[in-house]
Design brief:
single chain, alpha/beta, 5-stranded mixed sheet, 7 helices
């Protein structure tokens, strides 16, 4: 736990054509625990770097403890994000060019999340958008008991403890 995080920004569609929110999601690769998420109305490296700062403080991440894996999106490679990662002592890892498909660890967590049309375009829509996301995230990860696995209390995780980290390091995928 707390060695490799995967993160991505995903569109959260609404029932209003062309209207989206953006889900910033950080997941621990080992335990699949959602260590941080936020919903915004735009993509930016500044917002991502602030979220990462908050996560590192909350999870008590020490310098050189964490590697954060992402795709090659512009917020992931933005100067603000890279400078913040360097300041926090967090290493960056990215998908190979040409492999822009959503990261498998994150794919299932955001597949069925949709914001109700009543929240689209409203000034106070972001708090309303967070509620269905939180419910969906809890429902999707609850069967895996990520909090117990994250704290190494899940006995079923012990035999395969190193597999996700080893697979990420060798680039073989999960």
């Amino acid at each position: 736990p707390d060695q490799i995080y995967c993160w991505d920004i995903s569109y959260l569609p609404t029932e209003v054509r062309g209207s989206y929110f953006y889900l910033y999601l950080f997941v621990d690769l080992f335990s699949r625990k959602i260590v941080g998420w936020q919903v915004y109305d735009s993509e930016s490296a500044e917002r991502a770097s602030q979220l990462l700062t908050d996560i590192c403080a909350r999870q008590r991440i020490a310098p050189q403890q964490l590697t954060v894996h992402s795709d090659n999106g512009s917020p992931m490679k933005g100067e603000t994000m890279l400078a913040m990662m360097q300041r926090l002592g967090v290493a960056a890892s990215r998908s190979r060019p040409g492999r822009e498909q959503r990261q498998p660890v994150l794919r299932g967590l955001v597949a069925d999340v949709e914001i109700p049309a009543t929240t689209a375009g409203q000034a106070d829509a972001k708090p309303a958008a967070r509620a269905p996301l939180g419910d969906a995230a809890r429902a999707l990860v609850q069967p895996r008991a990520p909090a117990q696995r994250h704290r190494l209390r899940d006995a079923s995780a012990a035999p395969c403890r190193g597999r996700p980290v080893d697979a990420a390091r060798t680039g073989q995928g999960l």
